[in-house]
Design a protein that fits this description.
Chain A: It is a multi-pass membrane protein. The complex is a heterodimer of chains A (840) and B (231). With 840 residues, chain A is an alpha+beta fold. Helices cover 55% and strands 17% of the residues of chain A. In chain A, strand 2 (84-99) and strand 3 form a beta hairpin. In chain A, helix 2 runs antiparallel to helix 23 (698-737), helix 8 (247-285) packs parallel to helix 14 (422-454) and helix 24 (739-751) packs across helix 28. With 231 residues, chain B is of the alpha/beta class. Chain B contains 7 helices and 10 strands. Chain B has helices spanning 48-55, 78-88, 104-114, 120-130, 146-158, 176-193, 204-208; strands spanning 6-17, 20-32, 37-41, 63-68, 71-72, 89-92, 164-168, 196-200, 212-217, 220-226. The radius of gyration of chain B is 17 Å and the shape is globular. The chains are: A alpha+beta (840), B alpha/beta (231).
Amino acid sequence: MSLPVAIRIARRELRGGLRGFYVFLACLALGVAAIAAVGSVRESIEGGLKREGAVLLGGDAEMSLTYRYAEPEERAWMDATATRVSEIVDFRSMVVVERGAVTERGLTQVKGVDGAYPLYGRVELDPPIPLDEALAGNGAVMERVLADRLGLTPGDDFRLGTAEYRLSAILTREPDGAGDGFGLGPRLLIRTEALEGSGLLAPGTLFETKYRLALPEGADMAALEARADARFADRGMRWRDARNGAPGMTRFVDRMGSFLVLVGLAGLAVGGVGVSAAVRAYLDGKTEVIATLKTLGAEGRTILLAYLIQIGTLAGLGIAVGLVLGALAPILAAPFIQAQLPVPVEVQVHPGPLAEAALYGILTALLFTLWPLARTEEVRAAALFRDVSGRVRVWPRPIYVAATGALAALLIGVAAWFSGVPKLALWSAFGIVAALGLLALAAVGLRRLARRLARARFLRGRTSVRLALGAVGGPAGETTSVVLSLGLGLSILAAIGQIDANLRSAIQQELPERAPSYFVVDIQPEQLDGVLTRLTGDPGVSKVETAPMLRGVITRINGRPAKEVAGDHWVIRGDRGVTYSAAPPEGTIVNAGQWWPEGYDGPPQMSFADEEAEEIGLKLGDEVTVNILGRDITATVTSFRAVDFSTAGIGFVMAMNPAALMGAPHTHIATIYAEPEAEAAILRDLASAYPNITAIRVRDAIDRVAEVLGSLAAAIGYGASATLVTGVIVLIGAAAAGERARIFESAVLKTVGAVRGQVLAYFALRSAMLGAAAGAVAIVAGGVAGWAVMEFVMMGGYEFEPGSAVAIVLGGALATLLAGLAFAWRPLAARPARVLRARE
Amino acid sequence: MADPILSLADVTLTLAGNAGPVEILHGITLDVTPGETLGLIGPSGSGKSSLLMLMGGLERASSGRVTALGHDLTAMNEDQLARFRRDHMGVVFQSFHLIPTMTALENVATPLELAGHRDAFDRAAEELRTVGLGARMDHYPNQMSGGEQQRVALARAAAPRPHILLADEPTGNLDGANGAAIMDLLFGLRDRHGATLVLVTHAADLAARCDRVVRLADGRIAGEEARRAAE
């Protein structure tokens, strides 16, 4: 083997230019561009989040508490540590507007602020008055959506709890809004001291306090966090700082980015099929050159190396084009991206994601070209004298099969590593490989079936159909590459379609059927009887469930810090609801252990939700420490029970024996199941009688969730469409590559008496058959993927959704039909004599 | 003398070339009688194949008139020409021109199907047996030797029982033994079906088997000689 000779041969062969490689280049460039663009956007958002961390958080650091204000000792520590401290109170409530006999109510997320707010950034108001002026006295500002819903304009009065306030301006920008995470109601800002007369912050009421700290320049965040944790973590105080000002958002962007990169990888896999087909077609045309080189004494390895260098150079070009596109696209789309996101975006060229995309591109190019390249070794010098192409083995030498396997494993491994969600990456890779396998099998099956049908007696005389079947089943057709590439693209779309439809149906149709009408919080213990009397006497109410509710943070498990034991599990991430009950509430299924005896007043015992317990590794007998209102309560886990959070009913991760919690100030929550027509009256009565309580209309919350889900599906849809575009490019490539063969077929058919209509019908049928077959397989693959995601990831039921499935098959058939027809005109117009003589 | 089955009257053929129009055939006038075997000979580039293509309606004359079985081919559109070939003509090429995605049987059955024959496959099978390929019917072209492929092409041309058989150097790509076998088959088919055969060839021995030989040079008829009396 001689490298210099191989390089020289490659260089000479490259003189042929890019002809025949446009699809190859487009597939690689598009796949790499999609991944690079997604990665760049993710990096841009994360860069923005990082840079603006302090503004998003509202301070360099934030210490938050549930149910209580900071103790003097805690506040003293903050004052000593920070240059400035701002105190925020955050809770849900109802804005009430009375206009004569008509009373309007709207759920809101109230933020009570002090004079120091905001430490960083600026609140923007309409009219543009200073915040101090807007919040003076009983002034308040709210988001436009809430003001519009209630018909309020600046200067109007409204009620919150039992106190009257005046809307002084519309809140157009809240600097720390994105850092607050997902809220069910629009934001309302007010001075904390103005809330005093509202009766909304009574003991046991659900509220959160946040202390934002402005720290001296160069403060060591990690050291401060460690000190704060050491002193206050056991009191239920949580620390966040500007290193990650909006953790929920960062996590979301990270996950979303990872997921879209995986979708991009699927696109690259689709492109890989096109790359492979292009290289195969190119090398088929080089049989004579390779045979000649062998006649002249070139070793198989030298030839392989020469073509590897050549294809590698072209792949490098494709990847480079992809990187340029992927780097430029986010910059060009920056205004659009910035307008769509509630967070700052730092759009620039990010080398990291580009390098990641390039690596994926290189591995994919190698993976999909090695096999066809290995076949160059199989070409024998005898090919010059007679046609021996039909005798090339299907499998290359074992070393190439092994290398292909190793490359695939490496690609999957790299994807798993980079994505940060290895499990998802591995499952996605498994899905893609399984789908490719299924599609390859389908292609073989389709060819066999077509071949058999082409010979079927009942099709004799239907020339166009038989010709189309013969072509689909024939040896030199594009069946495999079209079914693989288009099929994979359609499979991904089908899977997304199935998952989206199932989630939508679960959230918008099934959930409202089972879910309560209202979720009522902050019912004071002395109000509970009155609430129940009002509700049970209402014929429109079918069921009411109530439970005492406290909120607490799991600080320790078996004496060890909870984070050490359970990592980043959602159960320990923030404060969780805790209830108490003497006996298992109706419908409770205790799966392990035993509920405490009636009247038990010994050391605290706890019943934990079984699935969550398993996820964080809890066993019966373990000790869980929960900080409630600054007080640690350590309970022994004595039972596990099934909790279904999907019904939107009352579900607590933790339940304790009454004696453990009854002394703590607390409120009750209630779920009300009522006829839709009774809902308005229930809300009116309850809110009038008990102004402090907050009723959340479950249907509104579901709509909010559905809205978010809709945006997610749209984002994933955009990602998947890149995959489909690649599939279509492969398809067009296959159609273009087949044009010469079709011109010849058309000439021969015309020679033996076929009219143009018959030839066109044959071409159209052949294309549509391939597309429909790819679509049909995509439905199966997409259905299986949809089922797996719904069943194992979403833990929900799956029902086949025919609407999108039919669209997929039709779309597949139409895409191939159009691509086929676009390349049918030249064959139809060609004069037989010219075509046939040119091949003499 | 019977009416000609093929007639060319002052036919010219001009094709567009890179350096401008190239006149391939100049004022060719020629009649072929029914049942006749006509050989077209001449050096490369003399216009033999182009003349054959004009006779088959595969190429359009730039001027003049081509009639076959009394029909004016120059007045027909593409589809009318295709139907005419389907019903009356069979063409054999030097490079066989089988459709690679079809088996031998399917290749031969296609013109019969296009002509609406219900027994297309039975007749195609019979024809393949006639040319000695009864055992290779389900093979694709790339699974057959050149000689075998040409036999399939012969069977495809002859299966619809055409009135006119046009063959363009049918042995040009074959070795001596295979070439001889193909010619025996071609003449045998012609004899059996009584078709008119027009044959382009370089081979003197083939030309010797024809009733009449027309020699072309530079796109013109340079000479003509009768070898055998037409039957």
